[in-house]
Amino acid sequence: MNEFIKKVLGSLFSTSKGSSVIGVDVGSSAIKVVQLRKEKGIAVLETYGELALGPYADLEIGRATKLGNNKLSEALTDLLREASVTSVNAGFAIPFASSLLTLIEMPAVDTRQLNKMIPLEARKYIPVPINEVMLDWFIVPDNSRQTPKAGGKNKKDKEGSVVRKKREVLLVAIHNEVLNKYNEIVANTHLDTSFFEIEIFSTIRATLDQGLAPVMLIDIGAATTKVYIVEYGIVRISHVINRGSQDVTLGMSKSLGISVTRAEEIKREQGLKSNSDNKDVVRVALLTLDYIFSEADRVLLNYQRKYNKNVSRVILTGGGAIMKGVIDLAHKHLESEVLLGDPFAKVDSPAFLDDVLKEAGPEFTVALGLALRKLHELE
Ligand SMILES: Nc1ncnc2c1ncn2[C@@H]1O[C@H](COP(=O)(O)OP(=O)(O)OP(=O)(O)O)[C@@H](O)[C@H]1O
Ligand SMILES: [Mg+2]
């Protein structure tokens, strides 16, 4: 028995037609898994579950951990069992902090030539020897570049289209040591995985549609908050803020002289909803949250200035986004429309679960995005 599982559904459907897939997100404070199946072209939710890692490191629930491979494998095995996961076809997330993502400018040569040049150029941007990393890249399609201002200096070709002097390329590097670590966990848990994906791309898949306008994604995790600005489905800016929801709990525990466990309970029950009894709770929580959203605002303003574009929407994900009152606080800081991520809206599930899935959704964003990609692979 494992009492640390917060939300486990068990298999929603007893008969599983076709192949099922899972997305596995090993976060710093909790592992999340989502199992999907495709039926008549539609992604159907089969099961999902979450397991707090704190107790595996003798820490409280909600705390960030740094566990070794054996403990992580043990925790994942527990979760797969408790969540009645039946599939071994997995997609795994790589933490954003273990990756390096840079948007670089390259000469406007054809794609074949560009593919030869990029690994050489990448040496300038990767701080470790290139043979120590797995390198990947995306050539940003031309139509997603800034529209040149009228009267600008871009030349036109015979057909009158603008000839671009540069092409943008999104460079992605993951250190081999990180990949080895995840490969070991996969082997220990007898899963079969065909890809590791940096969590930023899973988040984008799980939350955004085909929209073109710039959107800011804020993933409030336990130890850190990740901020991304995405335009035309392409990551323009990514940034890590070294504070997360765990800092709210630790701050409360310290300032109010209560246990971490009690502080975590208060955070989850009351959040930022203020009443005459909990003014101190809100004040302490704001110390962390104001910092996080001021930083996010700085990223947003920098982007708007640099590209001369407005960020029309902000989407909050991660467990820290579930806290009551966080959406309003984000709106106050960022002055944009702020929404809570609702990744389960991308899949079919029984109507009676709507409310539960809406509430749990932000935490499962990465795991769901991974499962969607894995499902797509089977087509
Ligand atoms: N209902 C809730 N109200 C407030 N905070 C919550 C709630 N549920 C979870 N949290 C907080 O969310 C955090 C965990 O979020 P999440 O699972 O997204 O983090 P993680 O993926 O483990 O961390 P990271 O992404 O930094 O590696 C914890 O600090 C937890 O206290
Ligand atoms: Mg996370």
In short:
This protein has helices at 69-82, 111-122, 176-188, 199-207, 245-256, 260-270, 279-307, 326-334, 354-360, 365-377; strands at residues 5-8, 20-26, 30-39, 42-52, 89-94, 99-107, 133-139, 155-156, 162-163, 166-175, 192-198, 215-220, 225-231, 234-241, 313-317, 337-340. With 379 residues, the protein is of the alpha/beta class.
If you had to describe this structure to a student in words, what would you say it looks like?
The chain has 379 residues and is α/β, with parallel strands linked by helices. It has 3 domains: 5-88 and 342-377, Nucleotidyltransferase, domain 5 (2-Layer Sandwich); 98-174, 2-Layer Sandwich (Dna Ligase, domain 1), CATH 3.30.1490.300; 217-340, Nucleotidyltransferase, domain 5, CATH 3.30.420. 34% of the residues lie in helices and 28% in strands. The protein contains 10 helices and 16 strands. It has helices at residues 69-82, 111-122, 176-188, 199-207, 245-256, 260-270, 279-307, 326-334, 354-360, 365-377, and strands spanning 5-8, 20-26, 30-39, 42-52, 89-94, 99-107, 133-139, 155-156, 162-163, 166-175, 192-198, 215-220, 225-231, 234-241, 313-317, 337-340. A 6-stranded mixed beta sheet has the order 1-4-3-2-5-11. Strands 14-13-12-15-16 form a 5-stranded mixed beta sheet, with helices on both faces. Strands 6-10-7 form a 3-stranded antiparallel beta sheet. Helix 7 packs across helix 8 (326-334). The longest helix has 29 residues, at 279-307. It starts with a strand and ends with a helix. The chain binds adenosine-5'-triphosphate (ATP) and magnesium ion (MG). Magnesium ion is lined by residues 27, 221, 318, 366.
